[in-house]
Design goal:
The chain is about 45% helix and about 15% strand. The chain has about 350 residues and is of the alpha/beta class. It has one domain: TIM Barrel (Alpha-Beta Barrel), CATH 3.20.20.30. The strands form 3 sheets. The protein has an 8-stranded parallel β-barrel, surrounded by 4 helices. α3 links the parallel β2 and β3. α2 packs parallel to α13 and α7 crosses α8. The chain starts with a strand and ends with a helix. The C terminus is likely disordered.
């Protein structure tokens, strides 16, 4: 079982004073000698997460916003970590795969093989237009392009020179003279719920962020929807002669009960801007997943999800060093100590 978290940036963070201050001052120069408070939070929190036993960080990407650029942030923090993996998001509609292949292996070698890619097929038409790309929204060709993108990445990591003649990318004897830190190369994480997207993941993805039923009325329906989704993806991957691993990204919070934990969340989180209101609107389905409640209840729900095949829990929570330590104490240590004790005893 693995545990992860998001790097704190505005479009995935709520309840954070440093993020709020960063956004408020983003359009003006910093005072002399100051560092962006969002970067300071990310540095302190993610180094603590590395120490606390988290396994992976997702550096989410948004260009049309007051977010520090994902690859820049990952490269500034990742090499200072000791064990945690840096997963960096990339939109195939905004990047050339040759450039991403070089950036990825650079970070991979700087972190001793602890780099992964979060492939985002894209939805923000305005952002893609402003930054010179095409989201291909309402067009299943975005999955054709994403699959080609992965094929080019892996080809460049594997061989030199590499050529590819596809619908979206034409590569003629391209040379990438820096290879990944490991023979396997960085893993590809992605998410989709459309039929074409699911088939693309089955063919080329290493990890899938499991789809959930947005209309689930309670935690049992949520769980059953996730179970069906996992079974479906297993079948799709088997038809492609592959195996895909499963991740879930619930919002997590602790209290004496689910109601107490939810009240605590609401007391912590103010939603003064559109980003935070949008994030808060997504907490409902995650709550149905059972990851808001007493520590015992949260651990029980995580074990249940692990029982149907979820291997990675990428948690969402109001970002702070204190929250990282709370998850360490309530989830990571109690869920790993029994395994480590059995291993140490030779059982």
């Amino acid at each position: 079982m693995q545990f992860g978290l998001y790097a704190p940036v505005p479009h995935v963070s709520v309840g954070s004073d440093p993020i709020a201050r960063s956004v408020a001052a983003a359009a003006a120069p910093l005072p002399p000698g100051d560092v962006d408070p969002a970067f300071e939070l990310a540095r302190d929190m993610l180094l603590e997460a590395d120490h606390a036993g988290f396994d992976i960080i997702l550096f989410a990407e948004r260009h049309l916003g007051a977010d520090i650029e994902a690859w820049t942030l990952a490269c500034a923090i990742g090499p200072w970590t000791k064990r945690i993996k840096s997963m960096v998001a990339v939109h195939p509609g905004l990047w050339r795969p040759e450039i991403v292949a070089k950036m990825a292996v650079s970070l991979d070698r700087m972190t001793k093989g602890r780099m992964a890619i979060n492939l985002v097929t894209g939805w923000n038409v305005e952002e893609h237009r402003m930054y010179g790309g095409d989201a291909l929204v309402d067009n299943d060709d975005r999955y054709v392009r994403a699959e080609e993108f992965v094929h080019v990445l892996r080809g460049l990591w594997r061989e030199t020179p590499f050529s590819h003649a596809g619908k979206y990318f034409q590569i003629d004897a391209s040379q990438l003279l820096l290879k990944p830190a490991t023979a396997a190369g960085p893993e590809i994480f992605t998410a989709s719920r459309s039929v074409a997207g699911l088939d693309m993941i089955a063919r080329v993805g290493d990890w899938w962020f499991v789809d959930f039923d947005k209309n689930a009325r309670d935690s049992d329906e949520y769980f059953e929807g996730a179970r069906r989704s996992i079974e479906d993806m297993r079948a799709r991957a088997a038809r492609a002669g592959r195996r895909v691993r499963f991740a879930l990204n619930p919002f997590v919070a602790f209290g004496e009960s689910e109601a107490d934990a939810m009240a605590r969340v609401k007391s912590i989180i103010a939603a003064p801007d559109a980003d935070q209101r949008k994030i808060m609107s997504r907490i409902g389905p995650a709550t149905l997943g059972g990851c808001i409640g007493s520590p015992e209840a949260v651990r029980a729900r995580l074990r249940a999800f692990a029982g149907i095949g979820v291997e990675l829990f990428l948690f969402k929570f109001p970002p702070s060093v204190a929250a990282v330590r709370e998850i360490r104490d309530h989830v990571i240590l109690p869920m790993r100590e029994p395994i480590e004790a059995i291993s140490a005893s030779g059982g």
